[in-house]
């Protein structure tokens, strides 16, 4: 598969160089044309380069059939690494039974389930069609940095989807009308079909007018009309999954959009008692959109109850739908079951999976509203930031941040990992680049955890005046919190700003951020880690050790990612295997290692991944 990926890249890069009309990209320098350079790139940059080039590539000229076949093979192989969720596992939020529908054709009608689900719409299986919020050109998004649903769907489906859309648009001869729909095959998607609909675009400074509200409603009814003509699934169901139409770049207010979506879909079902559609799923990607739909369903339930309607609202299930056990998951599970030793290697993606997402704007707005005026919008933005209004403001942020971390609730994800580790008795070790202390806070013994990047539970002398100038942070946080203004989030008592008790100098967080970092508190655990790895390597002799790498991206690959690969690649340690899981690069293992059965990559939410790997009769 690696050779097919390289062949695709060589063709696309050469083609991009030969077409000056192509948007400029980082591939304009000549060394990208060198076959050796392309083949030596890591798998994730290769896949990203292919994705970006295909995103920018127009449908004309057509790709050679062999290259198209190679692209399909590469995308299929990549897609097979993704966590999948079956529509059959999603519990309904609303059920419309035949006796609830308009009754002329009651004898031939079926119950219709309307469900709410949060996740990647391209990972839904056992669905007839998914809905794509398209633009009027209907060719997909040509901007590779856009994380719009149009881009995501086209990326997973492959370039044949753009070709199919182009054929439809050439035949139509004009832009697609707002509120209408076009149907194409799903190609490499799990869904058999894609419904492309163009939602209304709203001026963000104005409320949507009557026409725009009608157009949005038309998107939903048009998609349901189109689904009627599609073949049913083998089990007889006909399932359509809606994304949130018009609510992001097109600026339709999410709450109003959800209300229109629900009302339109329920009314359509009432008006079509003999419909062949059996399941309708509202899919949200963001938590806040999920909460908006939940609130609207609750309000909808109240209004229908008062009107005497018999539409039923099943109770919400206590757990989210479980992911399918794919061949990729089965292989990783078997490796864990057969392993004699376990290494848990964790990066920022694991913290993000329990809500401590340093890229989240909503998390920052919730906990640090007093710092938004500084241009800060994410926890990551504070790294290296020096434009504080005052030391009082700076330390107020640090104290609030430290308090948020230490009071973060325990999680089911870490509990599951702890249960996994317990099956190995003393034959496991944890090494993490995260400074948040979540492993120990969730019950892992401190002596089994190494944190080479430091920990928030310590402050250190910035000048490193002496090796032991490191102090627990909790007493400083406890002393300062009562003196932080709850509105401005500024420290009102400058005597609470910490100073080194030895030299009186500035303190800072004891995490790796430069030459000032004092690694002394963490050296003992690093020695234990190295002793553990050496001991495992000496005692393998037909046994197996698994590195379970979770949420380790490309920010600091030399800390965890590359050393993990080196463990697996070392011919003197043939018993090591790597399971790499996470979102994006964090879930992509080198394909050459996969081809030698030394590694497996799993793309998806870590809560789902760990549950699938460890739960259900592990």
From TrEMBL:
<dbReference type="GO" id="GO:0046872">
    <property type="term" value="F:metal ion binding"/>
</dbReference>
<dbReference type="InterPro" id="IPR002589">
    <property type="entry name" value="Macro_dom"/>
</dbReference>
<keyword id="KW-0326">Glycosidase</keyword>
<dbReference type="InterPro" id="IPR043472">
    <property type="entry name" value="Macro_dom-like"/>
</dbReference>
<protein>
    <recommendedName>
        <fullName>Macro domain-containing protein</fullName>
    </recommendedName>
</protein>
<keyword id="KW-0479">Metal-binding</keyword>
<dbReference type="Pfam" id="PF01661">
    <property type="entry name" value="Macro"/>
</dbReference>
<dbReference type="GO" id="GO:0016798">
    <property type="term" value="F:hydrolase activity, acting on glycosyl bonds"/>
</dbReference>
<keyword id="KW-0862">Zinc</keyword>
<keyword id="KW-0378">Hydrolase</keyword>
<feature type="domain" description="Macro">
    <location>
        <begin position="101"/>
        <end position="301"/>
    </location>
</feature>
<dbReference type="InterPro" id="IPR029035">
    <property type="entry name" value="DHS-like_NAD/FAD-binding_dom"/>
</dbReference>
